Amino acid sequence: MVEQDFTVELDKTIGCLWGLALGDAMGMPTEFLTPEEIASSFGGRVRELRVPLASHPRAGWPPGAVTDDTGQAVALARALINHRRLTPELVANTLLQWAVEADAFAKGFISPSTANALRALQRGATPTEAGCQGRTNGGAMRVAPVALVFRKNWQLLMEQTAIACLPTHGTSLAISGAAAVSAAIAAALAPGASVESVLKAARLGAVAGRDYGCRCWTPLLERRLDLALEIIARYTERADRIRALYEFIGVDMTVTESVITALALVAITDGEPMPAIIEAVNMGGDTDTIAAIAGAICGALKGTRAFDVAMVSQVESVNNLDCRGLAIKLLRLRKAENFS
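Request: output the structure for the sequence above.
Response:
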């Protein structure tokens, strides 16, 4: 029974990492475009790994290449595996090392908030100082490994989520968004999890996350999520729900738009990873991050059986990823910490 439980947990853990990476890779070529531009440029809806347009900031990237979403999440996962707990200094050093190895500054590989914070760290700013202006979704996009390790310890889950954000996205808004995502993933991993339990946990995470970081003015994310769910409930057709989400909530990299839209996509697609990723990829705006967040949550909920394995294999090959190996190490860490 114990071995069977481990097998199920491992499958859901791999599913979370698959959803993150595949959502990121599928959303990479459509990022920054409108829904109309995506449809016209790619000959309809994007349902597979594609090459960016020649005019795209990531022109020349191969199909299946991931962005900073997956890169930073994997870097944090390895830091956790090696050190068992994150500290602000460890996260700062990990992100700086990742940026150098990925040549992130030269390639325009990172968002303005992260780039500014990392440059501040290089100039000698403390992690708290560097991250006090970060109000976008950079913390939320990389937080999955924290949820995979600390899912059964709420206090540590929230504390480690805040620390994972601090050096680049250390505001109460950004941490609230990341906490909503980490709580949603943690809930999705639980036996018998449902879309309802996942969204309930996301609300609790959003509330708890506001207790951390530099204070900033923001709509309450749990109420913003309620609003998104109320809006999509007015429509019966999925296409109408997606359009309403795009028009009323938005797809920008701000937390109040992208994180809430990603959570609402979990509801719209009944927690199925491939539909959630495909809808996110074709919505426009910050497609890679919205697809990565929705994919990670849905992957944790449904496990590996819900994915196009051929596409996942291509993403792993292109980016030299080993999601199964990483999942095993993260799950073993959680077991070793007696969070089983």
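Residues 43 and 339 are 48 Å apart (CA to CA).
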